[in-house]
Amino acid sequence: MALGLEDKKAIVADVNETAVNALSLVVADARGVNVTDMTALRKLARENNVDLRVVRNTLARRAFAGTEFECVNGDLVGPSLFGFSMEDPGAAARIFKDFAKGNDKFEVKVLSVGGEQLPPSQIDVLATLPTRDQALATLAATLIAPVTKLARTFNEVPTKVTRVVAAVRDQKQDAA
């Protein structure tokens, strides 16, 4: 079905708005993947706040103009499935990586984070980025570690005194 100029402008504006708000982008070729698997992928993407789009490459290039995802324009060849991570930079990469394990025909073409283009081989790096909650937990553990160690050190002094007193008591009881 042919798209009219107004429809194309609406698609470009919608994809541009998504790209401006997204943290990362993963582009894949989904040729040969059956409808059931694609439906499962879309459901998983919705659950992880990943916006999946199938857009013509020419419209995607126009939509990416002026965004940090403009760097992927050179690799937009053939059918493309765009996964925009909206909250967690590694969400789309994790979903696409796991999906590719079960589908031989699903191929990641290019990644982009922070205005930098990454090759498909770097999907593991992007997929292993911690989620926001994991990063906050790590930060909290790092911040609280010195305080915890100090509390343990202060607690050790009375414990040592108690052990010495108990040892002296045992020694006097043995002598008596």
UniProtKB/TrEMBL annotation:
Pfam family, one: Ribosomal_L10
GO molecular function: large ribosomal subunit rRNA binding; structural constituent of ribosome
Stored InterPro entries: Ribosomal_uL10, Ribosomal_uL10-like_sf, Ribosomal_uL10_bac, Ribosomal_uL10_bac_type, Ribosomal_uL10_CS_bac
GO CC annotation, single: large ribosomal subunit
Any Gene Ontology biological process: translation
UniProtKB keywords: Ribonucleoprotein, Ribosomal protein, RNA-binding, rRNA-binding
SUPFAM superfamilies: Ribosomal protein L10-like (SSF160369)
Assembly description: Part of the ribosomal stalk of the 50S ribosomal subunit. The N-terminus interacts with L11 and the large rRNA to form the base of the stalk. The C-terminus forms an elongated spine to which L12 dimers bind in a sequential fashion forming a multimeric L10(L12)X complex.
PANTHER family, per the entry: 39S RIBOSOMAL PROTEIN L10, MITOCHONDRIAL
Family note: Belongs to the universal ribosomal protein uL10 family.
Function: Forms part of the ribosomal stalk, playing a central role in the interaction of the ribosome with GTP-bound translation factors.
Record's protein name: Large ribosomal subunit protein uL10
Organism expressing this protein natively: Halioxenophilus aromaticivorans
